[in-house]
Amino acid sequence: xxxxxxxxxxxxxxxxxxxxxxxxxxxxxxxxxxxxxxxxxxxxxxxxxxxxxxxxxxxxxxxxxxxxxxxxxxxxxxxxxxxxxxxxxxxxxxxxxxxxxxxxxxxxxxxxxxxxxxxxxxxxxxxxxxxxxxxxxxxxxxxxxxxxxxxxxxxxxxxxxxxxxxxxxxxxxxxxxxxxxxxxxxxxxxxxxxxxxxxxxxxxxxxxxxxxxxxxxxxxxxxxxxxxxxxxxxxxxxxxxxxxxxxxxxxxxxxxxxxxxxxxxxxxxxxxxxxxxxxxxxxxxxxxxxxxxxxxxxxxxxxxxxxxxxxxxxxxxxxxxxxxxxxxxxxxxxxxxxxxxxxxxxxxxxxxxxxxxxxxxxxxxxxxxxxxxxxxxxxxxxxxxxxxxxxxxxxxxxxxxxxxxxxxxxxxxxxxxxxxxxxxxxxxxxxxxxxxxxxxxxxxxxxxxxxxxxxxxxxxxxxxxxxxxxxxxxxxxxxxxxxxxxxxxxxxxxxxxxxxxxxxxxxxxxxxxxxxxxxxxxxxxxx
Length: 527
Fold this sequence. Notes:
single chain; 6-stranded antiparallel β-sheet; alpha+beta; 527 residues; 16 helices
Protein backbone atom coordinates (compact mmCIF):
# COMPACT_ATOMS: atom_id res chain seq x y z
CA UNK A 1 0.00 0.00 0.00
CA UNK A 2 1.47 3.35 -1.11
CA UNK A 3 1.18 6.23 1.33
CA UNK A 4 2.46 9.76 0.84
CA UNK A 5 1.58 13.38 1.51
CA UNK A 6 2.69 16.59 -0.17
CA UNK A 7 2.54 20.00 1.53
CA UNK A 8 3.10 23.36 -0.19
CA UNK A 9 4.01 26.72 1.35
CA UNK A 10 1.50 29.53 0.84
CA UNK A 11 3.16 32.71 2.08
CA UNK A 12 6.37 34.55 2.80
CA UNK A 13 9.72 33.01 1.85
CA UNK A 14 8.11 29.58 1.97
CA UNK A 15 5.59 30.29 -0.81
CA UNK A 16 5.73 27.60 -3.50
CA UNK A 17 8.11 25.34 -1.56
CA UNK A 18 6.97 21.71 -1.19
CA UNK A 19 7.64 18.92 1.32
CA UNK A 20 6.91 15.22 0.69
CA UNK A 21 6.91 12.23 3.02
CA UNK A 22 5.61 8.68 3.29
CA UNK A 23 5.15 8.55 7.03
CA UNK A 24 6.27 11.62 9.05
CA UNK A 25 6.88 15.36 8.68
CA UNK A 26 8.06 17.21 11.78
CA UNK A 27 7.64 20.99 11.76
CA UNK A 28 9.64 23.66 13.58
CA UNK A 29 12.72 25.87 13.58
CA UNK A 30 15.18 23.06 14.38
CA UNK A 31 17.35 22.19 11.37
CA UNK A 32 17.06 18.46 12.07
CA UNK A 33 13.32 18.48 11.27
CA UNK A 34 11.73 17.56 7.94
CA UNK A 35 10.01 20.96 7.60
CA UNK A 36 12.29 23.73 8.81
CA UNK A 37 10.44 27.03 9.17
CA UNK A 38 12.90 29.74 10.14
CA UNK A 39 10.27 32.20 11.35
CA UNK A 40 9.97 33.85 14.77
CA UNK A 41 6.30 32.87 15.04
CA UNK A 42 7.21 29.16 14.82
CA UNK A 43 8.40 27.16 17.85
CA UNK A 44 11.59 25.11 17.76
CA UNK A 45 9.60 21.87 17.77
CA UNK A 46 6.16 23.10 16.70
CA UNK A 47 4.03 20.23 15.28
CA UNK A 48 4.09 17.00 13.36
CA UNK A 49 2.19 15.44 10.46
CA UNK A 50 2.18 11.63 10.45
CA UNK A 51 0.30 8.74 8.94
CA UNK A 52 -1.76 6.46 11.22
CA UNK A 53 -3.99 3.46 10.64
CA UNK A 54 -6.82 6.01 10.21
CA UNK A 55 -4.98 8.16 7.67
CA UNK A 56 -2.88 11.32 7.86
CA UNK A 57 -3.10 13.35 11.06
CA UNK A 58 -1.64 16.61 12.38
CA UNK A 59 -0.71 17.23 16.04
CA UNK A 60 0.44 20.38 17.80
CA UNK A 61 3.39 19.83 20.11
CA UNK A 62 2.66 22.56 22.65
CA UNK A 63 3.84 25.39 20.43
CA UNK A 64 3.76 28.98 21.67
CA UNK A 65 1.63 30.43 18.86
CA UNK A 66 -0.37 27.30 18.14
CA UNK A 67 -1.25 25.25 15.09
CA UNK A 68 -4.39 26.02 13.13
CA UNK A 69 -6.29 23.72 10.80
CA UNK A 70 -8.54 25.64 8.41
CA UNK A 71 -8.56 28.62 10.74
CA UNK A 72 -9.34 26.64 13.92
CA UNK A 73 -6.67 26.39 16.61
CA UNK A 74 -5.95 22.77 17.52
CA UNK A 75 -6.15 21.40 21.03
CA UNK A 76 -4.66 18.16 22.28
CA UNK A 77 -4.81 15.07 20.11
CA UNK A 78 -4.42 14.24 16.43
CA UNK A 79 -6.56 15.82 13.75
CA UNK A 80 -7.39 14.32 10.32
CA UNK A 81 -6.07 15.92 7.13
CA UNK A 82 -7.61 16.09 3.66
CA UNK A 83 -6.51 17.56 0.36
CA UNK A 84 -6.80 21.40 0.27
CA UNK A 85 -6.73 21.68 4.07
CA UNK A 86 -4.87 24.79 5.24
CA UNK A 87 -2.36 24.43 8.05
CA UNK A 88 -0.97 27.43 9.92
CA UNK A 89 2.12 27.07 12.06
CA UNK A 90 2.35 30.43 13.80
CA UNK A 91 2.09 32.84 10.89
CA UNK A 92 3.30 30.39 8.22
CA UNK A 93 0.56 28.93 6.03
CA UNK A 94 0.92 25.55 4.33
CA UNK A 95 -1.69 23.76 2.22
CA UNK A 96 -2.15 20.00 1.81
CA UNK A 97 -1.36 19.62 -1.89
CA UNK A 98 -2.01 15.87 -2.26
CA UNK A 99 -2.48 12.66 -0.31
CA UNK A 100 -1.92 9.14 -1.56
CA UNK A 101 -3.52 6.66 0.83
CA UNK A 102 -5.97 4.65 -1.25
CA UNK A 103 -6.84 1.88 1.23
CA UNK A 104 -7.18 4.06 4.32
CA UNK A 105 -8.81 7.38 3.50
CA UNK A 106 -9.14 8.41 -0.15
CA UNK A 107 -9.22 12.11 -0.87
CA UNK A 108 -12.71 13.29 -1.73
CA UNK A 109 -13.54 14.00 -5.35
CA UNK A 110 -15.56 17.06 -6.33
CA UNK A 111 -19.29 16.38 -6.31
CA UNK A 112 -22.24 18.61 -7.06
CA UNK A 113 -24.12 17.11 -4.11
CA UNK A 114 -21.65 17.87 -1.33
CA UNK A 115 -23.85 18.62 1.65
CA UNK A 116 -21.53 20.22 4.19
CA UNK A 117 -18.73 22.73 4.53
CA UNK A 118 -15.90 23.47 6.86
CA UNK A 119 -14.13 26.71 7.63
CA UNK A 120 -10.80 26.72 5.77
CA UNK A 121 -9.65 30.15 6.87
CA UNK A 122 -10.78 33.38 8.43
CA UNK A 123 -9.72 37.02 8.31
CA UNK A 124 -10.66 39.14 11.31
CA UNK A 125 -8.97 42.40 10.44
CA UNK A 126 -9.97 45.90 11.42
CA UNK A 127 -11.27 48.27 8.78
CA UNK A 128 -7.88 50.04 8.68
CA UNK A 129 -5.96 46.76 8.36
CA UNK A 130 -8.24 45.65 5.55
CA UNK A 131 -7.81 49.00 3.79
CA UNK A 132 -4.06 48.39 3.80
CA UNK A 133 -4.87 45.37 1.63
CA UNK A 134 -5.76 47.76 -1.19
CA UNK A 135 -2.10 48.10 -2.12
CA UNK A 136 -0.50 45.00 -0.57
CA UNK A 137 -1.42 41.33 -0.47
CA UNK A 138 -1.25 39.12 2.62
CA UNK A 139 2.53 38.75 2.17
CA UNK A 140 2.98 42.55 2.17
CA UNK A 141 3.90 42.38 -1.51
CA UNK A 142 2.53 45.01 -3.92
CA UNK A 143 -0.64 43.77 -5.55
CA UNK A 144 -0.58 42.66 -9.17
CA UNK A 145 -1.79 45.24 -11.66
CA UNK A 146 -5.06 43.40 -12.40
CA UNK A 147 -5.98 43.16 -8.72
CA UNK A 148 -5.05 46.77 -8.05
CA UNK A 149 -7.12 47.89 -11.02
CA UNK A 150 -10.11 45.94 -9.67
CA UNK A 151 -9.80 47.66 -6.30
CA UNK A 152 -9.50 51.09 -7.91
CA UNK A 153 -12.55 50.35 -10.05
CA UNK A 154 -14.48 49.32 -6.94
CA UNK A 155 -13.71 52.71 -5.40
CA UNK A 156 -14.73 54.45 -8.62
CA UNK A 157 -18.31 53.26 -8.12
CA UNK A 158 -18.61 55.24 -4.91
CA UNK A 159 -18.47 58.62 -6.62
CA UNK A 160 -20.14 57.86 -9.94
CA UNK A 161 -23.30 55.96 -8.94
CA UNK A 162 -26.17 57.71 -7.20
CA UNK A 163 -28.68 54.94 -6.47
CA UNK A 164 -27.98 52.47 -3.71
CA UNK A 165 -29.32 49.49 -5.68
CA UNK A 166 -27.16 50.37 -8.70
CA UNK A 167 -24.11 50.80 -6.46
CA UNK A 168 -24.62 47.40 -4.83
CA UNK A 169 -25.15 45.65 -8.17
CA UNK A 170 -22.04 47.24 -9.67
CA UNK A 171 -19.91 46.29 -6.65
CA UNK A 172 -21.18 42.72 -6.80
CA UNK A 173 -20.61 42.37 -10.54
CA UNK A 174 -16.98 43.46 -10.10
CA UNK A 175 -16.47 41.12 -7.13
CA UNK A 176 -17.77 38.12 -9.08
CA UNK A 177 -15.60 38.97 -12.09
CA UNK A 178 -12.39 39.63 -10.14
CA UNK A 179 -12.76 36.56 -7.90
CA UNK A 180 -13.96 34.33 -10.79
CA UNK A 181 -17.04 33.26 -8.83
CA UNK A 182 -19.98 31.37 -10.29
CA UNK A 183 -22.43 33.49 -8.25
CA UNK A 184 -22.57 36.36 -5.83
CA UNK A 185 -24.92 38.05 -3.39
CA UNK A 186 -24.85 41.09 -1.15
CA UNK A 187 -26.86 40.87 2.07
CA UNK A 188 -27.21 43.88 4.34
CA UNK A 189 -28.42 44.26 7.91
CA UNK A 190 -31.96 45.61 8.15
CA UNK A 191 -32.05 48.63 10.50
CA UNK A 192 -35.33 47.40 12.01
CA UNK A 193 -34.12 44.02 13.32
CA UNK A 194 -30.43 43.81 12.27
CA UNK A 195 -31.21 40.65 10.29
CA UNK A 196 -29.50 40.11 6.94
CA UNK A 197 -31.65 40.78 3.88
CA UNK A 198 -30.55 40.07 0.31
CA UNK A 199 -30.09 43.28 -1.69
CA UNK A 200 -28.22 42.26 -4.86
CA UNK A 201 -27.54 39.03 -6.77
CA UNK A 202 -25.61 38.09 -9.86
CA UNK A 203 -24.30 35.04 -11.68
CA UNK A 204 -20.93 35.03 -13.34
CA UNK A 205 -20.54 31.70 -15.11
CA UNK A 206 -23.13 31.25 -17.89
CA UNK A 207 -25.99 30.74 -15.43
CA UNK A 208 -29.17 32.78 -16.02
CA UNK A 209 -29.58 35.46 -13.43
CA UNK A 210 -32.46 34.83 -11.04
CA UNK A 211 -35.22 37.41 -11.31
CA UNK A 212 -36.22 36.93 -7.69
CA UNK A 213 -33.81 36.78 -4.78
CA UNK A 214 -33.59 33.29 -3.27
CA UNK A 215 -34.55 32.77 0.33
CA UNK A 216 -31.32 30.96 1.16
CA UNK A 217 -30.81 27.37 2.32
CA UNK A 218 -32.48 26.05 -0.79
CA UNK A 219 -35.53 28.32 -0.56
CA UNK A 220 -35.43 29.81 -4.05
CA UNK A 221 -33.87 29.74 -7.51
CA UNK A 222 -30.85 31.73 -6.40
CA UNK A 223 -28.71 29.90 -3.86
CA UNK A 224 -26.66 31.47 -1.10
CA UNK A 225 -25.92 30.18 2.37
CA UNK A 226 -27.67 32.11 5.11
CA UNK A 227 -25.76 30.02 7.65
CA UNK A 228 -22.37 31.18 6.39
CA UNK A 229 -23.51 34.78 5.92
CA UNK A 230 -24.93 34.91 9.45
CA UNK A 231 -21.78 33.33 10.87
CA UNK A 232 -19.61 35.92 9.09
CA UNK A 233 -21.77 38.81 10.28
CA UNK A 234 -22.32 37.65 13.88
CA UNK A 235 -18.63 36.88 14.46
CA UNK A 236 -17.41 39.97 12.65
CA UNK A 237 -14.92 38.08 10.49
CA UNK A 238 -14.55 37.18 6.83
CA UNK A 239 -14.65 33.44 6.11
CA UNK A 240 -13.25 31.04 3.50
CA UNK A 241 -14.99 27.64 3.38
CA UNK A 242 -14.46 24.44 1.39
CA UNK A 243 -16.78 21.42 0.96
CA UNK A 244 -14.61 18.78 2.61
CA UNK A 245 -16.32 17.30 5.65
CA UNK A 246 -19.17 17.81 8.04
CA UNK A 247 -19.45 21.04 10.02
CA UNK A 248 -21.97 20.84 12.91
CA UNK A 249 -23.28 24.36 12.22
CA UNK A 250 -23.70 23.83 8.46
CA UNK A 251 -24.65 20.18 8.09
CA UNK A 252 -28.28 21.01 7.25
CA UNK A 253 -27.52 23.84 4.83
CA UNK A 254 -29.36 22.63 1.73
CA UNK A 255 -28.28 25.68 -0.27
CA UNK A 256 -24.69 24.42 -0.26
CA UNK A 257 -25.61 21.11 -1.89
CA UNK A 258 -28.38 22.38 -4.15
CA UNK A 259 -26.26 25.35 -5.22
CA UNK A 260 -23.29 23.08 -6.08
CA UNK A 261 -20.98 25.17 -3.92
CA UNK A 262 -17.54 23.66 -3.54
CA UNK A 263 -15.93 26.81 -2.20
CA UNK A 264 -17.42 29.91 -0.57
CA UNK A 265 -16.16 33.34 0.46
CA UNK A 266 -18.18 35.43 2.90
CA UNK A 267 -16.49 38.79 3.44
CA UNK A 268 -17.59 41.38 5.94
CA UNK A 269 -18.84 44.78 4.83
CA UNK A 270 -17.93 47.19 7.62
CA UNK A 271 -16.74 50.69 8.42
CA UNK A 272 -15.03 51.96 11.57
CA UNK A 273 -18.53 52.83 12.81
CA UNK A 274 -20.63 49.72 12.16
CA UNK A 275 -21.09 46.32 10.52
CA UNK A 276 -23.12 46.63 7.33
CA UNK A 277 -23.50 43.13 5.91
CA UNK A 278 -21.77 40.46 3.84
CA UNK A 279 -20.62 39.78 0.28
CA UNK A 280 -21.22 36.08 -0.49
CA UNK A 281 -19.28 34.50 -3.39
CA UNK A 282 -19.08 30.84 -4.37
CA UNK A 283 -17.33 28.55 -6.85
CA UNK A 284 -18.54 25.25 -8.26
CA UNK A 285 -16.87 21.83 -7.83
CA UNK A 286 -15.45 22.24 -11.34
CA UNK A 287 -13.54 25.39 -10.46
CA UNK A 288 -10.37 25.76 -8.43
CA UNK A 289 -11.28 26.47 -4.80
CA UNK A 290 -10.82 29.93 -3.32
CA UNK A 291 -7.48 30.50 -1.59
CA UNK A 292 -6.41 32.53 1.41
CA UNK A 293 -5.09 35.14 -1.01
CA UNK A 294 -8.58 35.32 -2.56
CA UNK A 295 -9.97 35.84 0.94
CA UNK A 296 -7.62 38.75 1.63
CA UNK A 297 -8.33 40.33 -1.75
CA UNK A 298 -12.10 40.05 -1.26
CA UNK A 299 -11.77 41.39 2.29
CA UNK A 300 -9.84 44.41 1.00
CA UNK A 301 -12.49 45.04 -1.65
CA UNK A 302 -15.24 44.85 0.98
CA UNK A 303 -13.47 47.37 3.21
CA UNK A 304 -12.91 49.66 0.21
CA UNK A 305 -16.57 49.81 -0.82
CA UNK A 306 -18.18 49.77 2.62
CA UNK A 307 -17.89 53.51 3.21
CA UNK A 308 -19.72 54.12 -0.07
CA UNK A 309 -22.49 51.71 0.88
CA UNK A 310 -22.88 53.40 4.26
CA UNK A 311 -23.06 56.83 2.57
CA UNK A 312 -25.68 55.53 0.11
CA UNK A 313 -27.75 54.23 3.02
CA UNK A 314 -27.50 57.57 4.82
CA UNK A 315 -28.53 59.41 1.66
CA UNK A 316 -31.49 57.07 1.21
CA UNK A 317 -32.50 57.62 4.84
CA UNK A 318 -32.21 61.38 4.36
CA UNK A 319 -34.25 61.16 1.17
CA UNK A 320 -36.95 59.08 2.88
CA UNK A 321 -37.11 61.65 5.67
CA UNK A 322 -37.38 64.43 3.08
CA UNK A 323 -40.24 62.65 1.31
CA UNK A 324 -41.98 62.09 4.63
CA UNK A 325 -41.67 65.80 5.36
CA UNK A 326 -43.18 66.62 1.97
CA UNK A 327 -46.05 64.24 2.65
CA UNK A 328 -46.71 65.97 5.97
CA UNK A 329 -46.77 69.36 4.23
CA UNK A 330 -49.21 68.04 1.64
CA UNK A 331 -51.43 66.62 4.38
CA UNK A 332 -51.35 69.98 6.17
CA UNK A 333 -52.80 71.57 3.03
CA UNK A 334 -55.49 68.89 2.73
CA UNK A 335 -56.54 69.39 6.36
CA UNK A 336 -57.62 72.91 5.40
CA UNK A 337 -59.83 71.52 2.63
CA UNK A 338 -61.99 68.73 4.03
CA UNK A 339 -63.34 67.85 0.58
CA UNK A 340 -60.00 66.80 -0.96
CA UNK A 341 -58.96 63.97 1.35
CA UNK A 342 -56.09 61.90 -0.09
CA UNK A 343 -56.21 63.94 -3.30
CA UNK A 344 -52.44 64.49 -3.40
CA UNK A 345 -51.74 60.80 -2.76
CA UNK A 346 -53.99 59.71 -5.62
CA UNK A 347 -52.65 62.33 -8.04
CA UNK A 348 -49.08 61.30 -7.17
CA UNK A 349 -49.89 57.63 -7.70
CA UNK A 350 -51.59 58.23 -11.07
CA UNK A 351 -48.75 60.52 -12.20
CA UNK A 352 -46.04 57.98 -11.42
CA UNK A 353 -47.99 55.15 -13.08
CA UNK A 354 -48.27 57.25 -16.24
CA UNK A 355 -44.63 58.39 -16.17
CA UNK A 356 -43.40 54.82 -15.80
CA UNK A 357 -45.68 53.67 -18.61
CA UNK A 358 -44.33 56.45 -20.86
CA UNK A 359 -40.79 55.39 -19.89
CA UNK A 360 -39.68 58.76 -18.58
CA UNK A 361 -36.10 58.86 -17.23
CA UNK A 362 -35.66 57.79 -13.63
CA UNK A 363 -34.57 61.28 -12.53
CA UNK A 364 -37.79 62.77 -13.94
CA UNK A 365 -39.89 60.18 -12.10
CA UNK A 366 -38.03 61.08 -8.91
CA UNK A 367 -39.00 64.73 -9.46
CA UNK A 368 -42.62 63.62 -9.78
CA UNK A 369 -42.38 61.80 -6.46
CA UNK A 370 -41.18 65.01 -4.83
CA UNK A 371 -43.17 67.60 -6.78
CA UNK A 372 -46.62 66.05 -7.16
CA UNK A 373 -47.42 65.91 -3.42
CA UNK A 374 -46.62 69.64 -3.34
CA UNK A 375 -48.55 70.65 -6.46
CA UNK A 376 -51.26 72.34 -4.34
CA UNK A 377 -48.95 73.74 -1.65
CA UNK A 378 -50.04 77.26 -2.67
CA UNK A 379 -53.51 76.64 -1.24
CA UNK A 380 -51.95 77.53 2.11
CA UNK A 381 -52.29 81.12 0.93
CA UNK A 382 -55.94 80.86 -0.18
CA UNK A 383 -58.66 82.33 2.08
CA UNK A 384 -60.66 79.74 4.02
CA UNK A 385 -63.89 81.32 2.81
CA UNK A 386 -62.92 80.34 -0.74
CA UNK A 387 -60.99 77.13 -0.08
CA UNK A 388 -63.65 75.57 2.15
CA UNK A 389 -66.73 76.94 0.39
CA UNK A 390 -69.31 74.11 0.04
CA UNK A 391 -70.85 75.63 -3.13
CA UNK A 392 -69.54 76.42 -6.58
CA UNK A 393 -67.14 79.35 -6.67
CA UNK A 394 -68.12 82.64 -8.23
CA UNK A 395 -65.98 84.03 -11.04
CA UNK A 396 -64.21 86.33 -8.61
CA UNK A 397 -63.59 83.51 -6.13
CA UNK A 398 -62.29 81.29 -8.90
CA UNK A 399 -59.75 83.97 -9.90
CA UNK A 400 -58.60 84.04 -6.29
CA UNK A 401 -58.36 80.21 -6.21
CA UNK A 402 -56.21 80.27 -9.37
CA UNK A 403 -53.58 82.17 -7.42
CA UNK A 404 -52.60 78.97 -5.61
CA UNK A 405 -50.32 78.09 -8.53
CA UNK A 406 -48.40 81.36 -8.23
CA UNK A 407 -48.33 81.31 -4.44
CA UNK A 408 -47.08 77.72 -4.49
CA UNK A 409 -44.28 78.62 -6.90
CA UNK A 410 -43.26 81.48 -4.63
CA UNK A 411 -43.05 79.13 -1.65
CA UNK A 412 -41.04 76.49 -3.55
CA UNK A 413 -38.63 79.04 -5.06
CA UNK A 414 -37.37 79.89 -1.55
CA UNK A 415 -35.81 76.40 -1.33
CA UNK A 416 -33.03 76.10 -3.97
CA UNK A 417 -33.06 72.28 -3.98
CA UNK A 418 -36.79 72.28 -4.84
CA UNK A 419 -36.53 74.55 -7.87
CA UNK A 420 -36.56 71.63 -10.37
CA UNK A 421 -40.19 70.96 -9.34
CA UNK A 422 -41.33 74.56 -9.91
CA UNK A 423 -43.01 73.71 -13.27
CA UNK A 424 -45.18 71.09 -11.53
CA UNK A 425 -46.36 73.52 -8.85
CA UNK A 426 -46.84 76.55 -11.13
CA UNK A 427 -48.05 74.97 -14.38
CA UNK A 428 -50.20 71.96 -13.50
CA UNK A 429 -53.31 73.92 -14.61
CA UNK A 430 -51.96 74.87 -18.05
CA UNK A 431 -53.70 73.37 -21.07
CA UNK A 432 -52.35 71.89 -24.30
CA UNK A 433 -54.33 74.49 -26.29
CA UNK A 434 -52.86 77.39 -24.29
CA UNK A 435 -56.08 78.30 -22.46
CA UNK A 436 -54.93 77.34 -18.99
CA UNK A 437 -53.39 79.37 -16.18
CA UNK A 438 -51.40 81.14 -14.77
CA UNK A 439 -49.08 81.70 -17.76
CA UNK A 440 -51.21 80.62 -20.73
CA UNK A 441 -48.55 78.18 -21.92
CA UNK A 442 -49.43 75.62 -24.57
CA UNK A 443 -48.12 72.46 -26.23
CA UNK A 444 -44.46 71.57 -25.74
CA UNK A 445 -43.87 74.87 -23.92
CA UNK A 446 -45.43 73.23 -20.87
CA UNK A 447 -43.08 71.04 -18.86
CA UNK A 448 -43.78 67.30 -19.48
CA UNK A 449 -44.03 66.79 -15.72
CA UNK A 450 -46.64 69.54 -15.44
CA UNK A 451 -48.58 67.98 -18.33
CA UNK A 452 -48.61 64.61 -16.55
CA UNK A 453 -49.75 66.09 -13.22
CA UNK A 454 -52.40 68.20 -15.02
CA UNK A 455 -53.92 65.03 -16.47
CA UNK A 456 -53.80 63.06 -13.20
CA UNK A 457 -55.13 66.06 -11.25
CA UNK A 458 -58.07 66.53 -13.63
CA UNK A 459 -58.96 62.83 -13.56
CA UNK A 460 -59.02 62.76 -9.76
CA UNK A 461 -61.07 65.97 -9.64
CA UNK A 462 -63.62 64.46 -12.04
CA UNK A 463 -63.97 61.22 -10.05
CA UNK A 464 -64.08 62.83 -6.58
CA UNK A 465 -67.28 63.89 -4.80
CA UNK A 466 -67.88 67.51 -3.90
CA UNK A 467 -70.66 68.95 -1.70
CA UNK A 468 -72.30 70.46 -4.78
CA UNK A 469 -71.88 67.45 -7.13
CA UNK A 470 -71.29 63.72 -7.29
CA UNK A 471 -68.04 62.50 -8.81
CA UNK A 472 -68.13 60.96 -12.29
CA UNK A 473 -67.85 57.19 -12.70
CA UNK A 474 -64.31 56.24 -13.67
CA UNK A 475 -65.28 55.12 -17.18
CA UNK A 476 -67.00 58.46 -17.81
CA UNK A 477 -63.85 60.28 -16.65
CA UNK A 478 -61.72 58.17 -19.01
CA UNK A 479 -64.09 59.11 -21.83
CA UNK A 480 -63.63 62.78 -20.94
CA UNK A 481 -59.83 62.35 -21.03
CA UNK A 482 -60.13 60.84 -24.51
CA UNK A 483 -62.46 63.65 -25.65
CA UNK A 484 -60.15 66.42 -24.38
CA UNK A 485 -56.93 64.92 -25.77
CA UNK A 486 -55.26 67.51 -27.97
CA UNK A 487 -57.16 70.42 -26.44
CA UNK A 488 -56.91 70.31 -22.65
CA UNK A 489 -54.43 67.42 -22.43
CA UNK A 490 -51.22 66.37 -24.15
CA UNK A 491 -52.51 63.83 -26.73
CA UNK A 492 -49.61 61.41 -26.20
CA UNK A 493 -49.97 61.41 -22.42
CA UNK A 494 -53.76 61.14 -22.72
CA UNK A 495 -53.35 58.04 -24.92
CA UNK A 496 -50.90 56.59 -22.41
CA UNK A 497 -53.31 57.25 -19.54
CA UNK A 498 -56.04 55.33 -21.37
CA UNK A 499 -53.60 52.45 -21.96
CA UNK A 500 -53.08 52.04 -18.19
CA UNK A 501 -56.80 52.16 -17.44
CA UNK A 502 -56.62 48.79 -15.71
CA UNK A 503 -53.87 49.92 -13.33
CA UNK A 504 -55.74 53.16 -12.54
CA UNK A 505 -58.96 51.28 -11.78
CA UNK A 506 -57.09 48.82 -9.57
CA UNK A 507 -55.51 51.70 -7.64
CA UNK A 508 -58.91 53.39 -7.25
CA UNK A 509 -60.38 50.18 -5.85
CA UNK A 510 -57.50 49.84 -3.38
CA UNK A 511 -58.00 53.43 -2.23
CA UNK A 512 -61.75 52.90 -1.84
CA UNK A 513 -61.23 49.79 0.28
CA UNK A 514 -58.70 51.62 2.45
CA UNK A 515 -61.05 54.54 3.02
CA UNK A 516 -63.96 52.22 3.89
CA UNK A 517 -61.81 50.39 6.42
CA UNK A 518 -60.74 53.70 7.95
CA UNK A 519 -64.35 54.89 8.24
CA UNK A 520 -65.41 51.63 9.93
CA UNK A 521 -62.51 51.86 12.38
CA UNK A 522 -63.40 55.42 13.30
CA UNK A 523 -67.06 54.44 13.74
CA UNK A 524 -66.32 51.61 16.17
CA UNK A 525 -67.47 52.41 19.74
CA UNK A 526 -64.76 52.88 22.33
CA UNK A 527 -64.82 50.14 24.97
